[in-house]
Sequence to fold (705 residues):
Amino acid sequence: MTEPVVSLARHGDMAVLTIANPPVNALSTAVVAGLAEAVLAFEADRSFAGLLVHCTGRTFVAGGDIGSFDDPAFSAAPYNRTLARIEAQDRPVVAALHGTVLGGGLELALACHARVAVPGTQFGLPEVKLGLLPGSLGTQRLPRAVGVRLALDMISTGRSLDAQAARDAGIVDDVRAGDPLAVGLAYLRALQAGGEGVRRLSAQPVPDEGLPADFFAQALQAAAQRKPFHPAARSIVLAVQAAATQPFAEGEATEARLFEQLRVSPESEALRHLFFAERQAARIPGLPRDTALRPVRRVGILGAGTMGGGIAMNFANVGLPVTLVEASAEALARGLGIIRRNYEASAAKGRMTSAQVEQRMALLHGKLDDTALADCDLVIEAVFEDMALKQQVCARLGAVCRPGAIIATNTSTLDVDALAEATGRPADVVGLHFFSPANVMRLLEVVRGARTAPDVLATAMQLARSIRKVAVVSGVCYGFIGNRMAEVYMREAEFLLMEGASPSQVDGAVEALGMAMGPCRMLDMAGIDVGARTVIEYGKAGGLPPDDSYRAMVRRLYELGRFGQKTGAGYYRYQGRTPVDDPEGAHIAAELAAAHGIARRTDIGAPEIVERLLYPLINEGVRILEEGIAYRPGDIDIVWTAGYGFPDHLGGPMWWADALGLATVADRLTFYGRTRGDRFGYWRVAPLLSELVRSGRRLSDGLPG
Fold:
């Protein structure tokens, strides 16, 4: 017989309402219904002196059932009515809190008359990360508990507080060590014996913090500036303002109205898509979840440059010792020095202590002899992006690394299968494409070679989680998922420059959509030299089209030593770190246009720029799906939102393509192929895209077959 997800049991003269919905006690439909029944049962039995709300397992309620938000019939009203019944009880109701008390879980706790937590408990209202606001009176009860400033900060950022901070703020009444059930019962009995009556947050005034008269006007303006593409930012301010200025019932109505507007908004739907896509990306078709992992107790990194050092920090941050190998003492000292400065900068901002800086530096062991890598369980090569050099390095690692050690390449574009064969042990090889700066960027492309062993892939995915990366598996092709799509994006950016658009026009068009950075600024920051060498290596591998004008701009800038920010000039000229359009850059573009027979124009508008940059990018993403390089459209969306600054409120390029209409994308690709010519197939519609259009299917409906 299946155990109920919510039960009511007697403990002496106290009732204990227990939620048991593993793994995180989420507020499913069954939990919401069970809560209502249990509260009614408590109301009916006057022999109980009080009620304890408690959860089994590793956590209190850690949020709602996010999938239910897509149901057109979804309503928070049933749950909210139960919370109102809990708060209205005339006998004390206490929440015993542990683990993570998030979203609807915190709203449940706030409806209780008192709250007691064990040390280590975390509290938060993270709905903003899904483009929502708390829909079960979190925007109304939390300000009454902690004041407007802290409530607005917590709800607007989604940040959490630990148990002691929650105690200091007024979210919980006490923090006590012990078993949550025992702690909760002891607190409930003491509260009932004290005879102080019940304390209902809905009846409390919002604390007077002496807010300036224009506090909410300023907050609304700040929300619009900080999150211009996220309607939740403004709605959260309005909901908290309602708590401070309206009676509770009116504030409740305001919150409900704003929540429903956000729930059905395209921005929230996009963010919820990304939430599930990130979790789906961890599931690898054909790879059993119980695949045994290879132990990784020590990591080796060959190359202590910017990328190698950043990669090393990821492992030191989680307590793994790292051996860093460089060819010269000078390069090694420089690399370790950069790592230390990065850590010290974090300490200066209060993100870690000086002691933690020293602890992490102590985990980094610099060596000049690659035989020091022989005792490492994972070795990552992070040398210059040159195929001949990387093959030489991989051959050496195949000889030096111990049997069973994983050998990883951090290449961003090169053939992982060729590098794997160079080691002589391709089953041990996987691509780990970190994004720069590697100690900051969330994305990790895990490249599965043709002969990568299943346990190597499983270990790489688990390791990514342990170093707090979002991992997406890619097959082997030029540039994998992200850089392969970025190549067509950059191709069109350069053609637009040669046709007469300025870098600020090109970047401004996509930044107006919400891109964190346009293509010209992006490559100037990454390094024109890096981008040009990638194109050159691709040419050596025979991958470039027979088109002399292809990426002509980046190659010319490279020849001229205009490497971007680091040299003060690239696509832009730099005043400090500020990019400005450069007449010399425009002259270079015009010269290249003349050399390659490209007509110059003065009528290039933002809509054309957006279509020419992003529609080929979408088309290339569809090709990647067609070829099986990516498993799912959502994997591509995670790569582009987590690694390339694609607007999360649009859900990633594949999700956005569905919103635009696949037929629209295909029609515009055909239009540009007809009007600009398509000698090299730049505008050829991917067969899978044509098939989806013919069948009336969306990418989010699942791929044919």
